[in-house]
Amino acid sequence: MIHIKLHRSKSGIKRSYFADFGIYLFLLLFGIFMMMPMVYAISNSIKPLEEIWYFPPRFLVNNPTLENFRDLMVVMSDSWVPFSRYIFNTFFITAVGTLGHVVLASLCAYVLSKHHFPGKGILFSVVVLSLMFSGAVTQIPNFIIISKLGWIDSYQAIIIPAFASSLGLYLMKQFMDQMIPDAVLESARMDGASEWNIFWKIVMPMVKPAWLTLIIFSIQGLWGTGANHFIQSEELKTLNYALSQILAGGIVRTGTGSAAAVLMMIVPIIVFVISQSKIIETMSASGMKE
Amino acid sequence: MNKDLAIRGNAISKKPDYFLKRRLEKGWKSIKKNRVAYLFAAPYMILFFAFTALPVIVSLGLGFFSFNLLEAPIFVGMDNYIRLFLGDDIFIKAIGNTFLLAVMVGPIGFLMCLLFAWLINELPKSLRTILTLIFYAPSISGNIYLVWGIFFNKDAYGYANAILLRYNIISSPILWFENPQYMMPLVVVVALWTSVGTSFLSFIAGLQGIDRTLYEAAAMDGVKNRWQELWYVTLPSMKPQLMFGAVMSITGAFGTGAIVTALCGMPSTGYAAHTIVNHLEDYGSIRYEMGYASAIATILFVIMIGTNIIIQKLLSKVGD
Lengths: 290, 320
Fold this sequence. Notes:
The structure holds two protein chains of two kinds. In chain A, helix 4 (83-114) packs across helix 8 (166-179). Chain A has helices at residues 17-45, 49-52, 67-75, 83-114, 120-130, 139-148, 156-163, 166-179, 182-190, 195-206, 208-223, 239-247, 254-283; strands spanning 6-8, 14-16. By secondary structure, chain A is mainly alpha-helical. Chain A has a two-stranded antiparallel ribbon. Chain A has a single domain (75-283), classed as MetI-like (MetI-like fold, Orthogonal Bundle). Chain A contains 13 helices and two strands. Helix content of chain A is 67%, strand content 2%. Chain A is globular and about 75 Å long. By secondary structure, chain B is mainly alpha-helical. In chain B, 74% of the residues lie in helices and 1% in strands. Chain B has a two-stranded antiparallel ribbon with strand order 1-2. In chain B, strand 1 and strand 2 (74-75) form a beta hairpin. Chain B is flat and about 85 Å long. Chain B starts with a helix and ends in a 5-residue tail after the last helix.
């Protein structure tokens, strides 16, 4: 007879070590699969050129070098604009778009969550409905609207629509529903605080975890801004666009392309590492009621 | 009798006017009373309507027109839709590819998120934090999926080809993203790789929020193993997160298009990986047939909303 060793989990249910081992193995294998392309990109980005020409190609690097990152500036110097311009554009779009989104979405989420006024139910339902289709659906009319506004070839063509991303409003409103007791707001009103002060001095500090969540989702959307029909002039184009241009150069550009890819992924990952626990806290309120 | 009717008629004809006035007055009063609320909501809502709600309406309408951005739109009735379903073989192919992708990436992606979140839930905190980052990172790293293009490069310097060549599994490099045999499977793998996103975080949070005493109570009621625990306690307790995650997964899966363009080109060889989103881009941004593209957008909209609503109905039954 086989005796499977059992232990007890926190909840008191019996668990076998055998199954635990299986779970660890499974997580390890999938972890490797998920990380492999990132590791490959990092390893390629620090390969000297001769190692890229090794045959057969090696997955990992032998003599790491930073020359690809330096080349990134040089390779792109024969394009119309310096590489640093693409970096600046991406930073600028992401920073301004994210800031505006957090402020406007929080402001709107606050009244949707804590005020009672006619039309509020419908407004929120429409926002929830908009989570159910992606940006591709609205792409063509948006092009028409943006061009009628005269925003083609400007930063605001990308930044202003990003202010009104619906996922951020949804998460912020759900989080406020859960985290902010009405009594706090009532007592502030009794003390004669203005609505703006209540929002800015009481509500906003209480929903700090949700800011971080809105920030990471906004960055996720904006940092990857790539080739775009709204932007035609080279000096307004973004890092992601530059990356695809470099990679189009083929195998010779593997090193520099990977360096650009590493630059692309490093920023959102750092932001996520810093804010992970707060984001999970916010996501606990993300659930949909029937 | 007649007089009576006349008076009544008069009263009726007066009525709407009177009520309208009162309603308007009441409405104005309520707007004034809630002016702060409207003022706070306005900046976001105006932008939301301008760039999300209005475009949907415009798209629904434009689907009935022929429009090239330069000349005034010409009303063509159902022509665009007739042409899509009866005269456009590539669109039919795109629908097939999109549904294939959605069926593979939607449910499998959703289950991957749930499985990972569930498996890492009981691990020590530091290990859980690291694994969360590893699984989530691909979905936030911008267009890092382009790296798959380097890995599966079509010549012998691509890593995948090099390995297969070295062990004599193949004799000449495979054109991974130009051979229809490999295009769709690779797009599915890459799409799945990026699909552990928002839903995953939502599930982790949902799992951590479950009341521990529920498990103790369930153990007393005779729940024996972790599968029973999952089905009878865990899933019903995190139903709201499951519903949110489903919306994220479905919308993401039907919206696949950028990955196809980045890896297989636009259009992909023989349209083998062409999706509805790609078809939309083709007509909207390359051929400038805005009316036709709007009809495609409308169909995509209906598919996305319809699937989401059906899945919400099904999920609301979990654990009932």
